[in-house]
């Protein structure tokens, strides 16, 4: 008995296209991102992998990607559950800043520490910033972070993985998780048992379904899973890795 999990990072967002740190800022998909999301759904159809339930973050780029992909796969009607625990990493004071400018100002080493280290969060976002989510009603009653490193994301995503995603897998459902580069990196780190150093080199492409078959212990039968379009995934992974250069 294996369980099928599909991880899908949102299609390119308007801020991905502009090279801006995004985090919890709720930006739209770009035209390219819309096309990527629809193609992601077609790839699911072609592979015969039809989700029974979808989990998304509370951010528009993941929600819209899930809607477009599922519509393309004729699965627009499946149950959906959303949680802030699947949100992108909160990028603190970097939210809204240009990646190239941050790299030029602080240098490659600091830039990469903030961007990809496991446990160094960026500086906190000032209260009242135009890029703050403090007053956002969707997070009312939840402790909104002011900045997060990947470790923080894992700490808040794991309880949701255990309480909401595993039960759906256990019920034999094909589960689609539509989320973000760094929340998916956290889940992948957990699934594949990737160490704190190695995870810094892992990037997730936009809009390409990553399929995992999991064993009875919810561990991958094939490490790293498989992208439904491996060539496009490799090209997109390289582009994500090079952002800011
Ligand atoms: O800006 C962000 O929120 C993320 C994902 O787009 O960027 P990065 O890949 O630099 O972590």
UniProtKB/TrEMBL annotation:
SMART domains listed in its UniProt record: PGAM
Single GO biological process annotation from the record: glycolytic process
Protein name: 2,3-bisphosphoglycerate-dependent phosphoglycerate mutase
UniProt family annotation: Belongs to the phosphoglycerate mutase family. BPG-dependent PGAM subfamily.
Keywords, in A-Z order: Gluconeogenesis, Glycolysis, Isomerase
Catalytic activities: (2R)-2-phosphoglycerate = (2R)-3-phosphoglycerate
Organism: Pengzhenrongella frigida
UniProt-annotated binding residues for substrate: 9-16, 22-23, 61, 88-91, 99, 115-116, 181-182
Tagged with keyword Oxidoreductase: no
EC numbers for this chain: 5.4.2.11
Pathway: Carbohydrate degradation; glycolysis; pyruvate from D-glyceraldehyde 3-phosphate: step 3/5
GO molecular function: phosphoglycerate mutase activity
Site positions per UniProt: Transition state stabilizer: 180
SUPFAM superfamilies associated with the record: Phosphoglycerate mutase-like
Pfam families given in the database record: His_Phos_1 (PF00300)
Active site: 10 (tele-phosphohistidine intermediate), 88 (proton donor/acceptor)
Described function: Catalyzes the interconversion of 2-phosphoglycerate and 3-phosphoglycerate.
């Amino acid at each position: 008995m294996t369980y099928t999990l599909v991880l899908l990072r949102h299609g390119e967002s308007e801020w991905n296209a502009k090279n801006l740190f995004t985090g919890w800022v709720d930006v739209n998909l770009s035209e390219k991102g819309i096309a990527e999301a629809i193609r992601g759904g077609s790839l699911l159809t072609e592979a015969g992998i039809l989700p029974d339930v979808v989990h998304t973050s509370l951010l528009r780029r993941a929600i819209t990607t899930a809607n477009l992909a599922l519509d393309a796969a004729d699965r627009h009607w499946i149950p959906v559950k959303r949680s802030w625990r699947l949100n992108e990493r909160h990028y603190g004071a970097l939210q809204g800043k240009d990646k190239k400018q941050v790299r030029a100002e602080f240098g490659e080493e600091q830039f990469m520490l903030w961007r990809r280290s496991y446990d160094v969060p960026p500086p906190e976002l000032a209260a009242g910033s135009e890029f703050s989510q403090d007053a956002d009603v969707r997070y009312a009653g939840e402790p909104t972070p002011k900045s997060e490193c990947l470790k923080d994301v894992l700490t808040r995503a794991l309880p949701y993985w255990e309480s909401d995603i595993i039960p759906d897998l256990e019920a034999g459902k094909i589960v689609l998780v539509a989320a973000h580069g760094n929340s998916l990196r956290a889940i992948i780190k957990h699934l594949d048992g990737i160490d704190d150093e190695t995870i810094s080199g892992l990037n997730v492409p936009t809009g390409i379904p990553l399929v995992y078959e999991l064993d009875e212990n919810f561990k991958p039968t094939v490490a790293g899973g498989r992208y439904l379009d491996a060539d496009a995934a490799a090209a997109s992974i390289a582009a994500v890795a090079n952002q800011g250069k």
